[in-house]
């Protein structure tokens, strides 16, 4: 094994753009995934049967089939209906819709964890339902959903490797192509692995900082979950949950 | 001409599915009056209170606020609720905000006050409820009595024309009940129109102008305080009083 070659791969144009592609797919899909999830979660809150059925069917489809299937389906089947999308766009749409299904569940459980009395108190002050949602429910739900969302983010980064099957030039595809051209699998895959680890580490640190900024000052005394235990994937000893009444 | 009542419920009914929770409840409250609402649990006291500010829209009857029928158009219920403060049994302070921020939220987001004005208002109100030193504490750093006083201050921040208290001391330890009742009695003495669901007969004796007794969703006694404490009550009310006073 040649460390020199690993380094050359790491700084090569194709690996850098592959890593950049992986990062863009992850961030863009996550962004739209959260939006889709939020919309689905809010729609599920409506007491309107047809809407509830539609969201259920959506969740059933996207949680009930492999994400690899969804990627291939959107890339290969939609063109037969005249919808021609680039590989990148197909990848982002498939991952966003898939992510949205999981985000919806996470956000819904977060919204439900905010006690009903909190909404009633907001309404009693003369706030509209929209303002109650925005200033009272969502900020409290955000604290609850942040840890599972962080996990989804890291999951998404790793899932993005699947879009190599529709020839999006992301990290894994680049590594695999490089390796099969040079027959240096070990070096090429090591370089890709280093990029993956670097990106997931950055996300973990980002999640840590966000969780800390959302925690109210009162928990300044209590030790937040340490960065080391987070990197080691240890469970949070004290989950952030709303206290009972 | 006679001044209209501040709030008046006429023949209010409330039904959840097949269950009738309120039957033909009527009550009129003058400006400055303090009314205490008593009755066994499940008698509909809290539901009646929530019908008055439309948190539970009545299924029958009308509610008039300052002479206007507010039950005819529920879309503007939020405007009515600005003028009617409410305090809950479980305080329901917003857990993600400090005491001062709890008080500032509605004046800023509903009335459009700037942060500085809202903060001044919050500090004034915390003084009024006797906990100015707790402004930067989060709800779970406060005792129950302190939380309930912050909740009263939060309701007062909208400059309401009346206050509704829904069993404000039922979730409190005995030694904290007094500090909350004192604040409520002071507000009543200052002329705040109030309707209070409570079993604290000491508070009723001290602050109430009128006592309402409810049972099975109906108002069966509506007596002025002097008559009530003079023993001029109907037999069913007397039996309930004997029970809660032991």
Automatic annotation (TrEMBL), chain A:
Subcellular location: Cell inner membrane; Cell membrane
Region (Disordered): 217-245
Claim: Membrane is one of the keywords in the record: yes
One protein family per Pfam: BPD_transp_1
UniProt record, GO biological process: amino acid transport
Domain of life from the UniProt record: Bacteria
Transmembrane segments: 20-43, 55-75, 81-98, 188-210
SUPFAM superfamilies referenced in this protein's UniProt entry, alphabetically: MetI-like (SSF161098)
Keyword annotations of the record: Amino-acid transport, Cell membrane, Membrane, Transmembrane, Transmembrane helix, Transport
Domain ABC transmembrane type-1: 19-207
Gene Ontology MF annotations: transmembrane transporter activity
Bilayer topology: Multi-pass membrane protein
PROSITE patterns linked: ABC_TM1
Chief site of localization: membrane
Gene Ontology cellular component list: ATP-binding cassette (ABC) transporter complex
Subunit structure and binding partners: The complex is composed of two ATP-binding proteins (GltL), two transmembrane proteins (GltJ and GltK) and a solute-binding protein (GltI).
Function statement: Part of the binding-protein-dependent transport system for glutamine; probably responsible for the translocation of the substrate across the membrane. Part of the ABC transporter complex GltIJKL involved in glutamate and aspartate uptake. Probably responsible for the translocation of the substrate across the membrane.
Family: Belongs to the binding-protein-dependent transport system permease family. HisMQ subfamily.
Protein name (Swiss-Prot/TrEMBL): Glutamate/aspartate import permease protein GltK
Organism annotation: Puniceibacterium antarcticum
Lineage of source species: Bacteria, Pseudomonadati, Pseudomonadota, Alphaproteobacteria, Rhodobacterales
UniProtKB/TrEMBL annotation, chain B:
Record GO cellular component, one term: plasma membrane
Subcellular location: Cell membrane
Membrane topology: Peripheral membrane protein
Alphabetized GO MF terms: ABC-type amino acid transporter activity; ATP binding; ATP hydrolysis activity
Keyword set, alphabetical order: Amino-acid transport, ATP-binding, Cell membrane, Membrane, Nucleotide-binding, Transport
Family that this chain belongs to: Belongs to the ABC transporter superfamily.
Protein name: ABC transporter
Taxonomic source organism: Puniceibacterium antarcticum
Biological classification of the source: Bacteria, Pseudomonadati, Pseudomonadota, Alphaproteobacteria, Rhodobacterales
């Amino acid at each position: 094994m040649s460390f020199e070659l690993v380094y050359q791969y790491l700084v090569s144009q194709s690996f850098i753009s592959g890593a950049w592609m992986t990062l863009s797919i992850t961030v863009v899909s996550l962004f739209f995934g959260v939006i889709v999830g939020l919309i689905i979660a809010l729609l599920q809150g409506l007491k309107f049967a047809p809407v509830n059925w539609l969201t259920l069917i959506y969740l059933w489809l996207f949680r009930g089939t492999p994400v690899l299937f969804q990627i291939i389906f959107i890339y290969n089947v939609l063109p037969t209906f005249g919808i021609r999308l680039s590989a990148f766009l197909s990848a982002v749409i498939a991952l966003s819709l898939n992510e949205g299904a999981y985000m919806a569940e996470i956000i819904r459980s977060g919204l439900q964890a905010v006690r009903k009395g909190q909404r009633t108190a907001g309404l009693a002050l003369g706030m509209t339902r929209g303002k109650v949602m925005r200033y009272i429910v969502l900020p409290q739900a955000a604290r609850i959903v942040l840890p599972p969302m962080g996990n989804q983010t890291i999951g998404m980064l790793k899932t993005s490797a699947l879009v190599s099957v529709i020839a999006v030039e992301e990290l894994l595809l680049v590594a695999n192509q490089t390796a099969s051209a040079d027959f240096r699998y070990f070096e090429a895959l090591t370089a890709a692995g280093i990029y993956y680890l670097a990106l997931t580490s950055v996300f973990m640190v980002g999640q840590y900082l966000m969780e800390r900024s959302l925690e109210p000052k009162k928990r300044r005394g209590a030790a937040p979950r340490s960065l080391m235990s987070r990197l080691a994937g240890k469970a949070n000893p004290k989950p952030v949950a709303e206290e009972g009444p | 001409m006679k001044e209209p009542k501040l709030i008046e419920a006429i023949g209010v009914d409330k039904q959840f599915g097949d269950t009738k929770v309120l039957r033909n409840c009527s009550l009129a409250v003058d400006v400055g009056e303090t009314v205490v609402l008593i009755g066994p649990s499940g008698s509909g006291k809290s539901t009646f209170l929530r019908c008055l500010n439309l948190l539970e829209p009545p299924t029958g009857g009308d509610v008039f606020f300052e002479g206007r029928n507010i039950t005819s158009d529920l879309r503007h219920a939020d405007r009515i609720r600005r003028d009617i403060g409410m305090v809950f049994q479980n305080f329901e302070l917003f857990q993600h905000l400090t005491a001062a921020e709890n008080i500032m939220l509605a004046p800023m987001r509903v009335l459009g006050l700037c942060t500085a004005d809202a903060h001044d208002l919050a500090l004034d109100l915390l003084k009024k409820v006797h906990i100015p030193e707790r402004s930067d504490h989060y709800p779970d750093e406060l005792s129950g009595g302190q939380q309930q006083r912050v909740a009263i201050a939060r309701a007062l921040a909208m400059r309401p024309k009346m206050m509704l208290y829904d069993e404000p001391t039922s979730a409190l330890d005995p030694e904290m009940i007094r500090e909350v009742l004192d604040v409520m009695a002071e507000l009543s003495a200052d002329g705040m129109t109030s309707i209070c669901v409570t079993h604290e007969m000491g508070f009723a004796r001290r602050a109430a102008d009128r006592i309402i007794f409810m049972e099975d969703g109906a108002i069966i006694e509506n007596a002025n305080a002097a008559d009530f404490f003079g023993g001029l009550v109907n037999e069913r009310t007397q039996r309930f009083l004997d029970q809660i006073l032991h």
